[in-house]
Structure formats: C-alpha cells, structure tokens
Amino acid sequence: MSKRILIVGAGFAGMWSALSAARLIDANGRDDVEVALIAPDPHLHVRPRLYEEGPANMKAPLKAIFDAVGVKFVQGTVERIHAGRREVDAVTVDGGPTTLGYDRLVLATGSRLFRPAIPGLPEHTFSVDQIDEAAELEAHLLALARQPETPARNTVVVAGGGFTGIETAAEMPARLRAALGEHAEVNVVIVERNEAIGPDLGAGPRPVIEEALRELGVSWRLGAGVAAVDAGGVTTADGERIEASTVIWTAGVRASTLTEQIPARRDAAGRLYVDRNLAVEGVPGVYATGDVACAATDDAGNHTMMSCQHAMNLGRSAGHNVAADLLGLESIAYSQPKYVTCLDLGPWGAVYTEGWEREVKLKGKEAKALKHRINTEWIYPPRAQRDEVFASADPLRIVVA
C-alpha cells in the first residue's frame, strides 16, 4: 500500500520540502511513497523582489521541475486541516471540494502582511506583500501623471521602517520620477513607530542605511506610527498630518492562519514551535517549515527569521526529515548558524552584513552586485533536470542568501 507525504504551499519552503523529500525517496529506491504538493498556483512567487519594478513577472514555473522528480502537483487551496485523522479539506482550482489524506504533512503556507484595525488602512493603502498587490501599486504609480500636480500627488508615505519598508522607500524616488518626469520634485517619507530606522536590523548597518536614504532624498518620522489613513494621506499617532496620494503599508507579517488549526504552541507571530527535525511539538505526523515555523538555527539561542534565507534551508531540512521519518531512516537536524543580511538601498546600492550582530561587510555598489545575484540567481528554482534538482535539494547544501 502506497503512502503519501503532503506538502501544503509552494513558496520557497514548500518547493524545497517537496524536492528534498523526493530526493531521499529516490535515493532509497522507493516507489511506494508519493510526494504531493498542493497550492493555488504552480509557480514560485519571488516575494523578496516585489518592491522592484515589474512585480507581475516575479514568479518562476514549478510544474516541469516537479514532473522531473516525480512530485505530484495538486492545484487548490487547503481550507481545513484535520491532524487527528490525517486529512485536509481543500478547494480545487475549478471550485470543487476535495479531501486529501496523508501519512505525513508538511505545512509550508508562509506568511501574510499584518494589517491592524487602523481607520482607512484597508481602503487607502497599497502593499508589496503579494504579486497582485505589488502590481496594483505599480499601476497606481504610473497613473499618477494623470492627476493634477500637487505636493500630495508627488508624495509617498511608507508605513513601517523595517526591512521591507526601507527597500521599498529606497526605490520610490526613482519610480516616482519615472512616472512623473525626471525633474519632478518628489517626497518619500518613512513613518516608523520605533525610535530608530530599521529597528530589527540593529545598530550595525544603521549609519549606512541613513546615509543612503538621505542621498536618495528619503526622509523619516520616528516615534509615532500611522494612526489613520484617508484618501488624502495619513495622520500619525502624535497628530502629524502628511498629505500623500500614495501610502504603502509594510509594517509586519504574521504566519498563515492555517497554523491555528494545528493543536500546538505558537509564538506571537503565529508560528508553530518545532523541534530540531522541524516536527511540530506534540502533533505526530505534522512538520512545519518556512514562515510558519519557529525553529532554532543554532545552539546559541537564535531562531529563524521570516525570510527567504531561512525558508530555503528550512524547506530542504523539512523535506528530508519528513521522508526519513516515514521511511524509518536517520534524520538530519536543521542547523543554520551563519546569518547574513543584504538590504537593497535602491540606486544608492546595498548593505551586506554578517552575524546576528549584523557587522557591515560590504556597502554601496559592491553590496548591490551581491544583492543582484541573490535576487536574480540564488533564490530561483533549479532547472528542470533531475540530477540538478536533487543536488540542489540536499539538506546539507546550506545556502546563504
């Protein structure tokens, strides 16, 4: 009787989970285990690039890769997980309901932008969280030239001064001028509720970030977040009014709400606590990976970030270990002690840091060249060639991106 490993989600962690599981099954000559992946779309959405121009093109096809290694793709959306009876309820691409059983489950449904109950936020903000949302922002920017010229038209407010907010803001002056004219006077403002720009990035790269933003013409307001948004702009928590025709929300993400259907502990971001093999604590047969997993990266107390860098290697480890569990083989504990960041700073360049203290190693054009390689090469799927896919899916092939 055949068995099934079911992976939910086709992001970085889900894709690599499927390929790594297929690799181990193939290496052991087993033809009685099916690796199936269910997701709404047979593409990898390259979410780390959605702050750039042309977001509609930021995706890579997966079907040929899955076919090359025998992963079954099911196009649909999981709506309910029944961990007790090892089944999921889903809706297929044609709208029909279906139920899929599994012997082992890997939850890899990622995260979504967190949108708190701020007046006007749903109606009057854009985002770069998903491809369709980033494409909507791009269309809006291009249409600004048809509006009467006012300071508000030429102003973009970026709500949130974290990683995504900084990368987005750094791109905005050039993107606004591309839409409004090379000599247009533009105003890009980051609104951050904390007392420093890039609060989660620490003090190490901050001088570089501030230098770059100043040279790009980006300003920032610290110590008060956005309290309300309307069609004409934003009001901050300390009462400041900023007139703007474009408000981009980037302030924080939360794990997929499917984690709430797993009877296990979750952290403040909704991520499931997992052991070093990425098995969910106290729930037999269920693994979590990528942005839905809170996993230790080392023995020094550091834990994964919601990032592509961690998701890729989490996926490789989860796929190997779920297959090893099912086949009765030895697992390989997830470990990713080297931590780096490479923050895009638009036309100015980038900043690259190493370690959890984020010591600056590269900046400007040199760091930008590295960021370009990460964004256009390293995070993309392998070619649909069986040997290349399996080599790339090795859980001991740690990729720092």
Automatic annotation (TrEMBL):
Source organism superkingdom: Bacteria
Family matches, as Pfam families: Pyr_redox_2
Residue ranges constituting the FAD/NAD(P)-binding domain according to the UniProt record: 4-313
Keywords: FAD, Flavoprotein, NAD, Oxidoreductase, Signal
Keyword NAD appears in the UniProt entry: yes
UniProt signal peptide: 1-21
Family assignment from sequence similarity: Belongs to the NADH dehydrogenase family.
Name under which the protein is recorded: NADH dehydrogenase FAD-containing subunit
Source organism (scientific name): Paraburkholderia unamae
Organism classification: Bacteria, Pseudomonadati, Pseudomonadota, Betaproteobacteria, Burkholderiales
